[in-house]
Structures are given as C-alpha cells and as structure tokens.
Write a structure and sequence with these properties.
This protein is α+β, with helices and mostly antiparallel strands. The protein folds into two domains: 80 residues, Immunoglobulins (Immunoglobulin-like, Sandwich); 130 residues, TonB (TolA/TonB C-terminal domain, 2-Layer Sandwich), CATH 3.30.2420. Strand 11 and strand 12 form a beta hairpin. The longest helix is centred in the first third of the chain and has 31 residues. The chain is elongated and about 70 Å long.
C-alpha cells in the first residue's frame, strides 16, 4: 500500500510539471506572436459627396510618431494596412478646401472612415480711414460677368461624378462702412471682426459679431457688410454656400 501511494503521488507530480511546461510553452508562443494589426479604409468626398481621386491621406501614429500615407483611387477610396492599435490623427489637404484633421482610434482588424471636406472659408479685410475716400475703389460696384460654361467633371470610364472643382465667390458690391462722426472727432482707432455665410444667391447671411473695440464701430461695419454681394461660389458647377470672416479696420485721419 505505501508503494502504491508513492507511485500515485509521483504520477500527480509529473502531471503538474507537464501542465506547467505546456502553459509556459503557450505563454512563450504568445510572446513570440506579432502584435495584432489593423487596416484603415475609407473614402474622401466633397460636400456634395462626390469622390476626390488622387488625394493624399496622411495618418500619424501619435504615440510612436510614425507617419503612414495613402492616395485615393478614382473612386476616392484609400487603404492603409499594417497599423498597430492606438490613437492616430488623419489629415487631408486639398486646394480650395479647409484642411481636414480628425483623431482616429485604431482597434480591431478593420476601421472605416468617410472623410468629407468642407469648402475653405474666405477672409476679407477692409480699412476705413476717417475723412478719406473709400479704400480699394476698383473692388466696388463690379458688374456680374458673363456666365462661363461649366461642365461638372466625370470619370471617363465609369461616368460617375468627380468632386473637388471649386470656383470661389467673386465680390460684386462692397459698400464702405461709415466712420462714426463722434469717434472720428475723438481720433479713435477701431477693429471689428464679423463672420457670416455667402449664400448660394451671393448675399450675406447669418452675420455674427466676433469682436469689436467699440459698439458704434461694430454697428457701422455690420450695416455696410450686410449690403455686400458676390457672384456665387460653385462646387462642381452647382451654387453653394461659403463661410466668410470680415475684418474692418477704422483708422483716424493722420495730419
């Protein structure tokens, strides 16, 4: 009987050792296995959702400071493979559009993104000098030009639309702001910033005051800017709205 108990104990000990060795082998195998990798796929389109071909998509690994790149195909699609899990930042820069930047968390075998580019907003600066004539008179009272033929581009093989064709708005009427009399007499200098939206019919909408050194400067600037007009912007030959920021500088007359 003692011999049988010793044999059974030795057998159990050998089994435990074998199981431990097997677990160690599994851990070693896991340690040797490469990190899981992901693929980032997506499409780049303009606000009309027409695809943008031949566009560079840059993805930066924020923790490792490694940059990955891809170029969209004729359907605006892109694919970046072999990405480790983590936080990334995607960037797309195309002329006529605001630079796109967005954080992307990569996890799992595949991550999908639709990148919609926005038309770049305009920046206008206008200077009003007390007692002087309107600045930049050549920019005032323009006539609407002849309608230029516009044909929306299409892919020659698939006949599907190609996006990204932007014609910026062209200013037609720019009414100069009036310098408030009491502020002119006080020889005050001022600055006003307004934001708005050039609508598809060329008029200004959604005017918002962003900054003003004096409320009377703000009132004078806003009254004038609301009467400015443009030849509408076009995206793929269709009228579209475009954002705008206007800065008006009020300068006292210097001797």
């Amino acid at each position: 009987m003692p011999h049988a108990r010793i044999t059974r104990q030795l057998f159990l000990l050998a089994l435990v050792v074998a199981m431990g060795a097997g677990g160690a082998d599994r851990l070693d195998a896991q340690a040797r296995s490469p990190d899981s990798r992901s693929t980032l796929v997506g499409v780049v389109v303009d606000p009309s959702h027409a695809p943008l071909p031949d566009v560079a998509v840059v993805v930066e690994d924020l923790s490792r400071r490694v940059t990955h790149r891809a170029t969209t195909d004729r359907q605006g699609r892109f694919e970046i493979t072999d990405l480790p899990a983590g936080e990334f930042e995607a960037e797309v820069a195309v002329a006529g559009f605001a630079v796109f930047r967005e954080s992307v968390r990569v996890a799992g075998p595949m991550v999908e993104r639709e990148i919609v580019l926005a038309i770049d907003a305009l920046e206008e600066t206008f200077t009003v000098v007390a007692g002087a004539g309107p600045a930049n008179p050549d920019g005032l009272g323009r006539e609407r030009g002849e309608v230029e033929p516009c044909v929306a581009p299409v892919d020659p093989e698939t006949q599907s639309p190609i996006g990204g064709r932007v014609r910026p708005p062209r200013m037609l009427t720019r009414v100069p702001p009036a310098f408030p009399d009491h502020l002119r007499e006080a020889e005050l200098e001022g600055r006003v910033r307004l934001s708005g939206r050039i609508s598809a019919d060329g008029t200004l909408a959604d005017v918002t005051l962003l900054e003003a050194s004096h409320p009377d400067f703000a009132a004078a600037a806003e009254e004038a800017v609301r009467n400015w007009t443009w030849e509408e912007a076009l995206l793929n030959c269709m009228p579209v709205d475009v954002g705008i920021t206007v800065t008006v500088q009020f300068m006292p007359q210097r001797p």
